[in-house]
Description:
Blueprint: H1 2-19, E1 23-26, E2 40-41, E3 46-47, H2 52-57, H3 62-65, E4 70-76, E5 79-85, E6 89-92, H4 100-107, E7 111-117, E8 123-124, E9 130-133, E10 136-139, E11 141-151, E12 161-171, E13 174-184, H5 201-208, E14 213-219, E15 225-227, E16 230-232, E17 240-247, E18 250-258, E19 263-268, H6 273-281
Parallel strand pairs: 2-13, 6-13
Antiparallel strand pairs: 1-11, 3-4, 4-5, 5-7, 7-8, 9-10, 11-12, 12-13, 14-17, 15-16, 17-18, 18-19
Amino acid sequence: MRSFFLLALIFCLQLQTASAETKIYYNKNIKNSKQFSADIIIANPKSVYNDLNILEAQGISMSDISLFNYYQEVTFENGTLIIAWKFNTEYVSDSFFKGMREYLSEMRPSIRLFWKNSNEKYQKAIDKKYFKVGSKTESTTIQYLKMEKQDIFDNAEGIKEKVVMSEIIQFQGKTILVTLDCLVLPFKTLEKGNWSKATSSDQLIELFGLPDKIETYSFQWPDKKSKNGLYYSPEINHPVSGEHWRFAKYPDLVIDISEGKKIRQFVTDRDLTYYNQVITSN
């Protein structure tokens, strides 16, 4: 009997170890990527939304920066580099990691660079990577380093897993690391037409709690409309209607609830209006 319980204990420990195991894909084009170390790790980015006036005063136009939500300054001896990106998080389905390489170009952080020579104003990168540094032309290199799946243990309800995308920027001898959290959503959608497997609105409430904001929509042919980043083009005699649910806990996530109370689809908010309202109110 004792041996039975001992075997059972060992089996349970193996299960826990397997469930907590971290899966990592490295960029094979980077030499010694597993031993890679960055000179600078971006840990506390600033809010573009809060600093728009400051950035404009330093030569960065509203049209060049307003679609980005985070930025960080990196100081060099001859000037300052600004790294701006759209999101700190992206939302993905539970099948994301299985086909991760297919999503790589879509999920990588959208990055924009600006450079300022000492005592000058900022200039936007030409062709996304070239700058005039003093009297010379310098270029940057941007590439992904690794993709890492992690468990989220401190979350009482909601999302339990994430995939961390690590991006490296190399400029004037320095290597800078930027990360993007891809949060793995714990529900199924109607996108593949499987009604029985799609998560219901009741199940979503059990996972996330009550929504903090609900917006209704209704479209019919020949409408071709976008709402909160989701596109609708209904067929003749097949109108579509439903609700967009949003949660303050995940302010840049939009969940589409069908008229039949199933999750139709989801998207990371590209507008950021609601996101900024939530962030600035906290």
